[in-house]
User: Which sequence fits this backbone?
């Protein structure tokens, strides 16, 4: 079935308010997973033990950046598709209008999609996510950091990295700095950006972060309150 489509912030936020919580999953794209089955098991076990216990099955949803599904590429899209098909998790994509206008939209593996106005980098390339040179969030990252948390009544968004690259690392830091609960799981990349760091920068970062365990979901951390 085709996903439900939301084209305005207000419509999308009203839809999100139907959930008790959200989890934004960061993972590998071009680097892919060395062992996708293992990554799916780690993510599903973590979410079952945390969000399912606190909010109840079906009361929360998974969000990701809307990467296309390709069975030959074990990346973040295949991971979240497995979560949806095998574990009954609602899957939401947050993607640029460019994909809808030029590539026929996101795949039917998602339950819903929000198409935000396309943003561009200085060189004219689409800004899919991450941060601008002056460190402002762009694309999907902006929606998750600046739009969703500031909405009245919007559910809390948890941030979970299963592997993930340099942009994912920056996203985790930004979420932590905003006091959002974050977590990272070790997952080896098939094509690591740095051979000496096969588990990716998000996992390396996780070992260095100071923060307080979330009171109700200890695997997640929140930033220590400023003195």
Assistant:
């Amino acid at each position: 079935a085709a996903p439900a489509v939301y084209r305005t912030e207000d419509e999308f936020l009203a839809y999100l308010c139907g959930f008790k919580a959200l989890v934004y999953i960061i993972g590998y794209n071009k680097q892919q997973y060395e062992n996708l089955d293992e990554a799916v098991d780690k993510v599903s076990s973590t979410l079952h033990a945390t969000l399912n216990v606190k909010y109840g099955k079906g009361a929360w949803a998974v969000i990701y950046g809307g990467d296309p599904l390709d069975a030959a590429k074990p990346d973040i899209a295949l991971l979240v598709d497995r979560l949806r098909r095998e574990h009954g998790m609602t899957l939401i994509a947050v993607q640029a209008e460019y994909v809808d206008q030029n590539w026929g939209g996101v795949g039917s593996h998602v339950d819903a999609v929000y198409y935000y106005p396309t943003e561009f980098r200085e060189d004219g390339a689409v800004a899919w996510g991450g941060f601008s040179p002056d460190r402002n969030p762009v694309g999907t990252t902006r929606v998750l950091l600046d739009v969703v948390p500031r909405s009245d009544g919007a559910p809390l968004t948890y941030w979970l990295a299963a592997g993930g690259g340099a942009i994912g690392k920056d996203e985790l830091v930004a979420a932590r700095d905003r006091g959002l609960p974050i977590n990272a799981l070790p997952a080896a990349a098939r094509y690591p950006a740095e051979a000496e760091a096969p588990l990716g920068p998000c996992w390396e970062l996780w070992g260095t972060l100071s923060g307080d365990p979330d009171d109700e979901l200890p695997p997640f951390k929140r930033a220590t309150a400023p003195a």
